[in-house]
Automatic annotation (TrEMBL):
Signal peptide: none annotated. Coiled coil: none annotated. This is Uncharacterized membrane protein YraQ (UPF0718 family). It is found in: Cell membrane. Belongs to the UPF0718 family. The chain crosses the membrane at residues 12-31, 51-76, 88-114, 126-149, 161-180, 222-243, 255-271, 318-341. Pfam families: ArsP_1. It comes from the Bacteria. It is a multi-pass membrane protein. Keywords: Cell membrane, Membrane, Transmembrane, Transmembrane helix.
Length: 342
């Protein structure tokens, strides 16, 4: 009974947050145009605008992610995953990075997919490689980065971003393997009650039964992820509005400080990886190339909104070690790439 109330409470929270989003979406024009709303600060109207833009940008990729996750749940067996993965733990890292170069997932959509793959038997460290590689290496991000920096004749930033993402994904996966081996127990238990409601029908193999199951899982995971996306987007909107960007610009000319600042900026802004290159290119005259590359590599691997999702789906110890590893590895690698350390 207590468990049922817990699930109902989470459902109500999810529906409530989505309702708030819909209300803000519907009245956003009135907030921007109505001069009689003098009690509402222009900054808070800007928070609303940024919040809506982040959510609207992410929702299509969330939907893509939950449907792929559901298809994996229904159609991919544990035996299939085990058969196609190399037995050697280190050798398995390379196919995961290559897979990330094919599938168009952003950092929002990739979390449920990786969670589902691990539950299906994919080793934890291989899932980590896919988690950090797919949001950067996919063809959509390659095209958007190329277009955003098309005025750069050597394409240094584009190739630095893609090359670092591939190499660092493997390194991060190897480090996490050293901490956790293949321990899938780092996943939290099912955090949504509806999944259990539909398990009775998983033995049905008919086409329509499978379609029904796919939509059940997609709806469950969409509402589960939606509330974390909305919370993360709101916090990110607050930072985007109230951070003094002039302070950031003042320290942007120093290689070390600008790299740290741009990594923090990437984390707080929580931009979708398909769009972040256009924001990064706007800082080209104020920040160093090294710091911009750090922004483009670090943000898709780790940002504020996918941190919420990671804590929702993985145990805290894993998430903390993952965050520390990604931060240190990206910062060190960028310094090495641009020749500041050997």
């Amino acid at each position: 009974m207590q468990t049922t109330r817990k699930f109902i409470g989470k459902d109500l929270l999810g529906f409530g947050l989505l309702l708030v989003f819909l209300i803000l979406f519907l009245i956003s024009d009135q907030l921007n145009e109505n001069e009689q709303l003098n009690n509402i600060s222009a900054d808070w109207i800007n928070v609303n605008t940024i919040f809506l833009s982040i959510v609207l940008e992410a929702v299509p990729f969330i939907l893509l992610g939950v449907f792929v996750s559901s298809l994996i749940q229904i159609y991919v067996s544990e035996e299939t995953i085990q058969r196609f993965l190399p037995k050697n733990a280190i050798a398995a890292l390379f196919p995961a990075a290559m897979l990330g170069a094919i599938l168009p997932f952003c950092e929002c959509a990739i979390v449920p997919v990786v969670r589902r793959l691990i539950k299906k038997g994919m080793p934890l460290h291989v899932g980590v490689v896919f988690l950090v590689a797919a949001p950067i290496l996919n063809p959509i991000v390659f095209a958007s980065t190329f277009y955003a920096f098309r005025s750069e004749p050597t394409n240094t930033i584009l190739y630095s971003r893609m090359g670092l993402a591939f190499v660092l994904a493997i390194i991060i996966g190897a480090i996490l393997y050293g901490f956790f081996k293949n321990n899938a127990q780092q996943l939290r238990g099912d955090t949504h009650g509806h999944i259990h409601v539909h398990e009775h029908s998983h033995n049905k193999t008919g086409f329509f039964a499978r379609i029904k199951q796919t939509f059940y899982h997609a709806v469950d995971e969409f509402f589960l992820m939606g509330k974390y996306l909305i919370m993360g987007a709101f916090i990110a909107a607050l930072f985007q509005t109230f951070l003094d960007r002039s302070v950031l610009t003042a320290i942007g000319s120093n290689d070390y400080s600008s790299t740290i600042v741009m990594m923090v900026f990437a984390y707080l802004l929580s931009l979708c990886s398909e769009a972040d290159a256009f924001v990064a290119s706007s800082f080209g005259s104020q920040f160093t190339d090294m710091s911009i590359v750090a922004f483009l590599v670090y943000g898709p691997m780790l940002d504020l909104k996918n941190t919420f999702m990671l804590f929702a789906f993985f145990k805290a110890r894993f998430v903390i070690i993952f965050m520390i590893t990604v931060t240190i590895v990206v910062f060190t690698a960028v310094l090495v790439l641009f020749g500041l350390i050997l």
